[in-house]
Design a protein that fits this description.
313 residues, mainly alpha, 11 helices
């Protein structure tokens, strides 16, 4: 199979196409990573969530106004946090793998994990700073929504639409933050600026690519979940009581939910690959980071050769 060079300028179709080609070429690696590093914590998270769910008088059903967190005890919340951690770890793992693939032809699971450990300080600081930046933004949004709801009428829609647009506009460039931080070794402020610089003039192209990949991702996920949904439908029509009110029904729902979660998690790998391929393309178009790095490396090698030759005389 033809080797895919990550750092190169691509158009819209090439970015989408190369993302799926890269995922296909590295499918075995993605499966091994998923089985060894994602499935075990997901199984623990599911177990904690099930044992930490407080059953109501109506069973485990979801009713209007349902609040999941109100039905979770300490174990359930721990399972939910482990679920979120697994999502984060999976995305970081794929990010490091893509960065390593820029330099090395063959990258192993342990090599990628070692790189995560090496970059753990940068990762933690990035997460903390993103969290610190997010808190005041959330506070402002909540305040605006509260004022809009208190006024009533069309104000919630008038305020909500610009906030949604601003959120979407910011999420697209910020999706590259870990690639910029871990690959280019920039400080947090410079990395944030770089994320918006490389997207300048390419926002709509990236948005369309995101949308197309999301549709493919959703269609792929629906096709994977179709057998599970069919199984649930068969059990639902043949069950004497609602599935959520007896032990056997809950076991069926638990297995189906776990399978669906695994399929969703694995599909997220492909979406993260697209984010990485898109970043490499935008970065190379903006300042040719990879090309400049190679030129600098040639200069360093030449200097070493000159010093070595001088020492021979």
């Amino acid at each position: 199979m033809e080797k895919i060079t990550l750092p190169q300028v691509r158009d819209l179709g090439q970015t989408i196409g190369d993302s799926f080609l890269f995922a296909r070429a590295n499918f075995k690696f993605l499966v091994r990573f998923f089985l060894f590093y994602a499935v075990p914590p997901l199984l623990v998270a599911v177990a904690l969530f099930v044992f930490g769910y407080k059953k109501t008088d109506s069973g485990f059903g979801v009713t209007p106004g349902y609040n999941m967190f109100a039905h979770l005890n300490g174990l359930g919340m721990l399972g939910y946090l482990l679920y979120l951690f697994t999502i984060l770890f999976q995305q970081l793992y794929i990010t490091e793998y893509l960065i390593l693939k820029e330099t090395f032809e063959d990258v192993t699971l342990t090599q990628t994990l070692a790189q995560i450990r090496e970059d753990s300080g940068t990762i933690i600081i990035t997460l903390l700073l993103l969290f610190a930046l997010t808190i005041p933004v959330i506070g402002i949004v909540v305040f605006i929504v509260f004022i809009a709801n208190s006024i009533g009428g069309y104000m919630p829609a008038i305020c909500g639409i610009p906030l949604a647009v601003l959120l979407i506009y910011s999420l697209i460039p910020l999706s590259s933050i870990f690639f910029v931080r871990l690959r280019e070794k920039l400080g947090m402020a410079d990395a944030l600026v770089k994320c918006f610089q490389i997207i300048k003039g390419n926002w709509w192209r990236t948005f369309v690519a995101w949308f197309v990949v999301f549709l493919v991702f959703y269609a792929f996920l629906v096709s994977l979940l179709a057998p599970v949904s069919l199984l649930l439908l068969v059990f639902r029509f043949h069950a004497v009581t609602p599935l959520q009110t007896d032990v056997f029904g809950m076991a069926i729902l638990g297995v189906a939910g776990t399978l669906a979660g695994f399929m969703y998690f694995f599909s997220l790998n492909i979406f993260q690959v697209f984010i990485g391929v898109n970043y490499f393309s935008l970065s190379e178009k903006y300042d040719g980071y990879h090309l400049k790095s190679e030129i600098n490396e040639i200069g360093v090698r030449d200097d070493r050769n000159v010093h070595r030759q001088e020492g021979e005389y």
